[in-house]
């Protein structure tokens, strides 16, 4: 009897180990972004997570982390580059040290529409830049989320570059954004988005630039009331992870992230564009004056000054990119 019992227990133990070996723990990936809960990017990331879970039958899980919970864009992206299981929103211009030419994608006034900007991301030039990103330790998971057309919210109405002389405008701490606001005629003041509201209240800055959904979501209109439609950037943003982590994923996992990432990009872009007009109306209802702006003088200044600010670019890059976009 004792021998039978011991034999039965041994069989049960082996079966348990076999069963455990067949059950793989889900691969969990954090998705980090600075947008607040309820904003279009946040809603789209949560939908992306649902698609990934469905496609992988629960074996691949995306965990949304909004409101910069894991740190700044570049802090989180560097964590990814070092092997962390994270995908982070970022700006192409933030990779200027790793792949300098990529930053031209964020240059002001290089395109008039998002359709024109997306031509650049479908070009052979961009495919070459993606390969350079891989060599630098990064992997672009989703390249083309439409983030919004950036406008200028300020204390005083702005109609021409001269109106911005001495005006302090908050920008993200990125060489391209600093150069853009300087080219527009203002004084760029880098700080995190979370510090903008008190900075406006205390008079540390006189304005902030961003898409209307971000301007409204941050409640910056409670401090400044002039929305100037400068349309200085059609921002298309990537979601990036580390190349080492990407190679650790199975072919199937990479396929799922890539294919659902395309759906995520389309969905996020749709939400952003729908929200844009609604948030302009919400800003009006909150007492903001919306000013149409002749962008020609701003465009002329930008196209003259921006190439001079980036000597690290490949020779002729700016003109090459304009040709692709306008081709």
UniProtKB/TrEMBL annotation:
> What is one term from the GO cellular component aspect held by the record?
outer membrane-bounded periplasmic space
Report whether Manganese shows up as a keyword of the record: no
The protein in question is named Tripartite ATP-independent transporter DctP family solute receptor
**What keyword terms does UniProt attach to this protein?**
Receptor, Signal, Transport
Lineage of the species this protein comes from: Bacteria, Pseudomonadati, Pseudomonadota, Gammaproteobacteria, Oceanospirillales
Family stated for the protein in its record? Belongs to the bacterial solute-binding protein 7 family.
In the UniProt record, the signal sequence range is 1-25
InterPro entries annotated for this entry? Answer: DctP_fam, TRAP_DctP, TRAP_DctP_sf
> Which top-rank group of organisms is this from?
Bacteria
């Amino acid at each position: 009897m004792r021998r039978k019992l011991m034999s039965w227990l041994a069989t049960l133990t082996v079966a348990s180990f076999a069963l455990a070996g067949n059950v793989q723990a889900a691969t969990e990936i954090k998705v980090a972004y600075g947008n607040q809960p309820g904003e279009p990017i946040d809603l789209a990331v949560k939908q992306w997570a649902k698609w990934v879970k469905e496609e992988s039958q629960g074996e691949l899980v995306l965990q949304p982390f909004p409101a910069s919970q894991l740190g700044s864009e570049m802090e989180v992206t560097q964590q990814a580059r070092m092997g962390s299981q994270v995908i982070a929103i970022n700006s192409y211009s933030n990779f200027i040290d790793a792949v300098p030419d990529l930053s031209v994608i964020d240059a002001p006034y290089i395109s008039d529409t998002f359709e024109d900007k997306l031509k650049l991301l479908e070009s052979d030039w961009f495919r070459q830049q993606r390969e350079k990103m891989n060599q630098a330790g990064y992997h672009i998971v989703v390249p083309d989320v439409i983030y919004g057309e950036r406008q200028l919210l300020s204390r005083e109405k702005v109609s021409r570059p001269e109106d911005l002389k001495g005006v302090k405008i908050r920008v993200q701490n990125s060489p391209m954004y600093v150069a853009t606001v300087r080219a527009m005629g203002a004084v760029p003041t880098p700080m995190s988005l979370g510090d903008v509201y008190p900075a406006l209240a205390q008079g540390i800055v006189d304005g902030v630039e961003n898409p209307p959904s971000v301007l409204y979501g941050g409640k910056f209109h409670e401090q400044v009331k002039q929305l100037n439609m400068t349309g200085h950037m059609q921002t298309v943003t990537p979601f990036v992870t580390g190349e080492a982590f990407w190679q650790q994923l199975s072919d199937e996992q990479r396929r799922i992230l890539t294919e659902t990432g395309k759906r995520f990009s389309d969905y996020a872009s749709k939400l952003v564009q729908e929200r844009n007009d609604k948030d302009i109306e919400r800003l009006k209802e909150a007492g903001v004056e919306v000013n149409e702006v002749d962008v020609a003088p701003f465009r002329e200044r930008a196209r003259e000054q921006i190439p001079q600010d980036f000597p690290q670019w490949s020779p002729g890059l700016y003109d090459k990119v304009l040709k692709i976009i306008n081709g």
